[in-house]
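Order emerges. As here.
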Amino acid sequence: DDILLSGSVISHLEHADDIALCSTTPEGLQLKLDDLALWASQNQMKVNLSKTVVMVLRRPRTQVGVNFVFKLYGSALRVVTEQPYVGIRFSSAAGNMWDAHFEACALRARRAANVSFFVESHTGAIPPWEGRQLYTAQIDPHLVWGCEVTGVGTVAQLSQLEDVQHTFLRRLLGLQKRSQICILFSETGLWPLKFRRLALQLRYLCYTLSLPDTHLASRAVKESIQAARITQSGWFSDLQRAVAAIGLALSADPSHESVAALEPGLKTALYRHIQDCTNGSPKLELLHSRPLYICRDRKLAPPLEFRAYLRVKGKNYRQALTSLVVSDHCLSIELLRRGTRSRPGSVPRALRLCRFCLTAVEDPLHVLFVCSASPDLRAQR
């Protein structure tokens, strides 16, 4: 009744003082509990009953009841549906095994984000570059925690983490909830979580493929690869689908070299994704084919980069400039794009006229350089 992993018997796992016993039958697990108690007494130790629980892992979409009382030192053990082990939260409840883990990571990341902005009451507004460093040090670790094991995640799971990331970056840049998502990354140089988690998972696969066969991680990955070959779902098949979703291909028989070769392609796919989202948005006309001037040479700016205008010292000036560049302003071209209670539909672009001259569309270029109907506007120039 032991677990077989690539032909090797796995009866238990040990990480420091955290022990997990594995069995496919209730009777087998009880025998292992008795052996654990005997081994502990022979080594002048005792198993902590309050921290010892039983979890029954079922196959997906099955309901198998276990009418068995597990005992240790004569006391009945609790049967739980959710339990962390070495930092990863497992769940045997209905749904995906990793749902509880993603929820816990999102909660910790949100708390870290709230604490990061709490310091503004003592220090003043956090500049974007310093906020980016705070994100990398305090929030990103929670958002990617355990991704080597859990993978990129389902759409529902990933959306919980993305909501924390997007909320933090919008607040850092002073943007509204309606702002485009792609500019959160094109302007800060950070990676979207989907690509970030996928990159870490591919690096972990690269690492496990270089391990000798005696390592459990190597055996587990090979078992998952073999399951994917016979069209069974698992860690490796999920990784293949995630890689295919961004336009790349992960071999059914991966090697260290073939997986390492995917890293440049992943970065290229990310840049292409951000560039396509930016160029495909009518709101981001100022960012279409953004130029970069080096001395007298004119080139295209990188799709992802921390932009120079975010280093402007004054908060009000910086946020006004940011809102103008990413079309998160209060000009007619943007406000009349959305309906209101009194006006359910959007106004056609040609009718979003300047509030002063009423002759041209009120967009940033018109307000900054063209309109001359307002004396105050001319004075501000």
The first helix runs from residue 26 to 42.
